[in-house]
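REQUEST FORM: STRUCTURE PREDICTION
Request ID: SP-0412
Submitted by: Lab K.M.
Chain count: 1
Length (residues): 188
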Amino acid sequence: MRQEPVELPTTAYALLGLLTFGDDLTGYELKQRADNTLRFYWTSPAMSQVYSELTRLTGHGLVAARDDQSAPVRRSRRYRITPAGRQSLESWLRTESNEFPSLKHPVALRLLLGHLVDPARMRALLEKYLVALAVRRLELAAVRTSLGEDSDPAYDGYRYPRMVADWGLDYYESERAMVAALIDRLDG
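STATUS: Completed
RESULT:
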């Protein structure tokens, strides 16, 4: 009997995707993987959201759960994507996205309202953001390094994550240039 396709939120597909890299993960490990990857270009879900999505995905047969007998103290479950989950994920990847990224930028919001404070405060805000951008770019550069190079066959399975990491690095660089130009405009 063929199962009807399930309508899932994008975060569920993101978590399914993180389970395609070949290992069974606990909810905690999946959250760590999300924090180390998704946070650079998507929202990293809260721990409670990871577990609620895993429950949903398991209920739909898209993820299989098993008790981890090696867990020393607490009962732990490991999750892996099922063939149905992979099929659902691949189907979602084949559909055209009608989602356009929305810019939810707290620094831009504060700059929009900058007329309410001293211009020096806005300059300090943008300078502090430049420092945060540099830190975030270094973190992503470390992730990118861990993904190997296109010429190394040992890292062949990371071709697309490398492309996304490169995109993110370019994004942070363009964001840095835009913020530096905004600082120049404040001074001008």
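NOTES: The beta strands are 63-67, 77-81.
Reviewed by: T.R.
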